[in-house]
């Protein structure tokens, strides 16, 4: 049976998902793919009479439980249809199961998933990638509107923008732990935001992509950080073929761990294929036996956050790299300014400096 990739397109209110879905269908249909899109189930339910803002807790519970059940059923049915296609196929979900959890307390979510016969780890594992588009309410406020979605509950005033930013972060937190969660920044040029979506889906489909440098800076923390998602990362490079980079990464937060095996292979001077897969704890321990003897394991604390529509990862290194702090962001064009937060002081721009690639930082000296 052929493997069908299932991808979630999610984000905060007014993030551009509807436009992105149209672009995805056009682009990948043009490449010969049959593109299936799963509609946003909560919107369907709202239009059918569900009220997610109700104070009736029994009504809320039954509605959210039904939302999850229908989401799962739609995805499973479309998967069978995709597998029956002769052409290569991909399934893109307009939001996924974990989005539902962002709109309720953890206790209610646990009760609902138990009643449906599932749990958070299994729900995240259903998807090959999660692409989160940052809400226009964070960094692109001039483009924020509620007029294109009649079921949207957030207004376009300051309070509405605050709620939209909060929902944006809750959705990211709901998906944190997925090995291929990518946060798509707001850009001055909306086409760049959409092109990043196409690039990330192409990576999942293992299509060759241009090698893109991430913007990186050595920084110093000079103030108090806002809320962020913290995780401990242990990254070990494995013995690999020439022109390839293979690593195994364990990422832990709140006592939970996810292991990801990544293989980067250059297919030309300007293109590479990147493949990622989640692996079990047993396989993780086994792969460590293939560690590159010329490279040390990298350990770092990562704090992920959004600032003015741009997604940042702040890595504080431990062990042989103690004291090194690197700020990284993706999807920002060379001509576009990075919106540095005031609690960080930039010491040095290291974008494109191979000395600071993790692969080289791991070298034994």
Which parts are unreliable, with pLDDT below 50 for 5 consecutive residues or more? 147-154
Radius of gyration: 21 Å
Topology as a string of helices (H) and strands (E): EHEHHEHHHEHEHEEEEEEHEEEEH
The averaged pLDDT comes out at: 89
Number of helices: 10
Largest sheet: 10 strands, antiparallel
Q: Helix- and strand-based class? A: alpha+beta
Distance between the termini: 48 Å
Q: Tally the beta strands.
A: 15
State which percent range the strand residues make up: 25-35%
Helix proportion range: 25-40%
What is the 3D form? globular
Report strand order across the widest sheet: 6-11-10-9-8-12-13-14-7-15
What does this structure look like?
The protein has 365 residues and is an alpha+beta fold. It has ten helices and 15 strands. The chain has helices at residues 17-30, 41-48, 57-84, 97-101, 106-116, 120-124, 158-175, 190-204, 281-287, 358-361, and strands at 5-11, 34-38, 89-94, 129-133, 181-184, 209-210, 215-221, 229-238, 244-253, 256-266, 271-279, 298-307, 310-317, 325-329, 344-349. A ten-stranded antiparallel sheet has the order 6-11-10-9-8-12-13-14-7-15. Strands 2-3-1-4-5 form a five-stranded parallel sheet, with helices on both faces. Strand 4, helix 7 and strand 5 (181-184) form a beta-alpha-beta unit. Helix 3 (57-84) packs across helix 5. The longest helix has 28 residues, at 57-84. Residues 147-154 have low confidence and may be disordered.
């Amino acid at each position: 049976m052929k493997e069908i990739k299932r991808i979630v397109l999610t984000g905060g209110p007014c993030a551009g998902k509807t436009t992105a879905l149209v672009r995805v269908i056009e682009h990948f249909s043009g490449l010969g793919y049959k593109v299936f899109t799963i509609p946003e189930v909560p919107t369907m339910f709202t239009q059918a009479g569900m009220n997610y803002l109700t104070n009736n807790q029994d009504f809320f519970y039954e509605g959210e439980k039904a939302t999850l059940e229908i989401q799962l059923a739609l995805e499973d049915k479309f998967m069978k249809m995709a597998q029956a296609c002769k052409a290569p196929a991909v399934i893109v979900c307009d939001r996924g199961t974990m989005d539902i959890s962002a709109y309720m307390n953890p206790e209610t979510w646990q009760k609902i998933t138990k009643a449906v016969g599932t749990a958070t780890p299994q729900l995240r594992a259903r998807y090959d990638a999660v692409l989160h588009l940052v809400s226009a309410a964070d960094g692109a406020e001039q483009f924020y509107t509620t007029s294109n979605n009649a079921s949207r509950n957030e207004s376009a005033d300051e309070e509405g923008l605050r709620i939209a930013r909060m929902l944006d972060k809750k959705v990211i937190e709901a998906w944190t732990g997925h090995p291929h969660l990518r946060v798509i920044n707001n850009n001055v040029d909306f086409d760049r935001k959409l092109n990043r979506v196409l690039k990330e889906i192409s990576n999942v489909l293992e299509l060759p992509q241009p090698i893109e440098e991430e913007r990186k800076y050595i920084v110093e923390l000079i103030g108090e950080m806002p809320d962020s998602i913290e995780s401990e990362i242990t990254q070990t490079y494995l013995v690999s073929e020439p022109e390839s980079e293979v690593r195994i990464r364990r990422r832990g937060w709140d006592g939970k761990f996810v292991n990801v095996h990544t293989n980067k292979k250059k297919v030309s001077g300007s293109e590479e294929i990147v493949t990622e897969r989640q692996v079990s704890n047993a396989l993780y321990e086994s792969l460590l036996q293939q560690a590159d003897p010329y490279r040390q394991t990298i350990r770092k604390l990562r704090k992920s956050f959004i600032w003015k529509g741009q997604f940042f990862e702040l890595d504080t290194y431990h062990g042989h790299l103690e004291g090194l702090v690197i700020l990284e962001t993706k999807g920002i064009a060379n001509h576009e300014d990075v919106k540095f937060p005031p609690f960080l002081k930039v010491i040095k721009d290291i974008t494109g400096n191979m000395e600071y690639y993790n692969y080289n930082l791991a070298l034994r000296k």
